[in-house]
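cache lookup: miss for this entity combination. No prior model stored, computing from scratch. Input as submitted by user K.M.:
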Amino acid sequence: MSIEIKNINKGFGSFSALNNVSLDVPTGELVALLGPSGCGKTTLLRIIAGLETPDSGNIHFHGKDATERAVREREVGFVFQHYALFRHMTVFENVAFGLRVRPKHTRPNDAEIKRRVHELLNLVQLDWLADRYPPQLSGGQRQRIALARALAVEPKVLLLDEPFGALDAKVRKELRRWLRRLHDELHITSVFVTHDQEEALEVADTIVVMNQGKIEQIGSPQQVYDQPATPFVYQFLGNVNQFNGHATNGEIQINNTELKINAPELTQNSPVLAYVRNSDIEVYKESQHTTSTINARIQHIHAVGSLVKLELQLSHQSDVIEAELTQVRFKELALSQGDNVFIVPRNIRVFPSTATQ
Amino acid sequence: MAQKNSLPGFNLSLGYALLYLSLIVLIPLSAVFIKTFSLSWAEFVEAATAPRVMASYKLTFGASFIAALINVVFGVLTAWVLTRYQFFGKKIIDAFVDFPFALPTAVAGIALSAIYAKNGWVGSLLEPLGITVAYTPLGVIVALTFIGLPFVVRTVQPVLEDLGAEVEEAAASLGANRWQVFYKVIFPAIWPAVITGFALAFARAIGEYGSVIFIAGNMPMVSEITPLIIITKLEQYDYAGATAVAAVMLVISFILLFAINGFQWWNNRRFGYVK
């Protein structure tokens, strides 16, 4: 079932949590709402679920207005960050809950409930825990039970609020791959909230980057990573360097160096912000004749891991930037701390410098 | 217990706890029993089961039980309102709940009887309906409800806070209606705390004296509570008779509290709480 969100506004007191947000979630997609804490992503998810009422705007489920529909009539499965399992019920009863509370005429009989619950417990690979109580399970197990419980009511939409946020790093990684596989099997329209970019990039079909109650960009993981639409998305996703410069005549000037870029929309002599990914910074020991270079000095070298990270001090500005080299390239250059180097930024993306605020 | 523990001073602190308990609780209570032994068995039975005394047991335990039940219903409701909603003056209402703890019970008793007397604010409204509160067993229940309220609220409140709104939201998203959310999710979770609150309110009511005697009227066989009988006997220098009644009360209270605690222990085990 598709979800259409139209012009949603929501405030808490004087704080505006969502500011005219519109979003379409196509049927069967796995969408991540990504953003820093306080950006409104959880509020948006709760509005979709019906746990929160928008001040204005509409939610449509499959073309039908669901804005006024109560939570229990929306047919959504909701998974909470802290599981929210019923701890006085066994795992089996937790999963069976949604079936048992149905009105008599639609409630399945006991044998059918038993079959369905065990089917779901097998799906989350925890059938052997059916008789345990939630406090006896690990965090990862609890979250899988919470998911099975949400799926028991055959929801049209699955909503997950920071589902792996309370788990440790290893379990989190395991579970998000598992969630992806599960989604590929079930194809249920799903929206999950996360502040973890890695999680969103790895799991989602579509990422919605949010900031301060607004949507900054909607796109595939590749799109939001490779072509960030705003300075915020640049800074939020991946490692990036920010240069302060000036636009002049289709060129920008950074650190007394003219760099040719193709940005005709920039006005003459205006302050700009240029963004370059750490991995797009090339480092040379000699000045390059074919292209303009920026002078810098190596301040620090982190050589642990598959990539070598350099901290570089620009010669005419106080800015420190970071560059990533492969181990091979690093050895080839034979760099050491304090060396003067020449850097060439590739894939520069320039924004007028007012765009950050 | 001989093994090393990261928390030092087990022997010292246990010794102190036992000494303290003995001085404050166990020795005075055992004195009750020792004094009772100055009576012969026949005298004891006569003192402890006289019709007037039997009527007072019935009133004390009956009224305390009903008062504790009333407190369970309204105490849970109060705790619910205080944990789930934000409203103007919430802090003040929260503080009001403790009033029965802090107020001298005699003051409460005088205030209650003034209000519920036939010419009092509330009493004058109930009078035309044929309901008399002051100087009847009903008055006893009102006084005992008053002093027991904070026990239920204060035991249930933290559990409700701990339970969080999320489980309710989870239940609602799974299709449960409000009533189902309450009796299938909230109530089982707060049940042990409710029982504890009930037991505390009940125990407090059984021993209550100050607030009751003003509103009860203290008519023998009708509205006379057991603590008053004990006081009366003491005033007549019938120490042994007073302790006989006291010993019976003590034993019944002990059995009741023991039963409630046992029930709770069973309940916790059944739900597999890992503490």
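stored under new cache key. Chain B touches chain A through 22 residues (CB under 8 Å).
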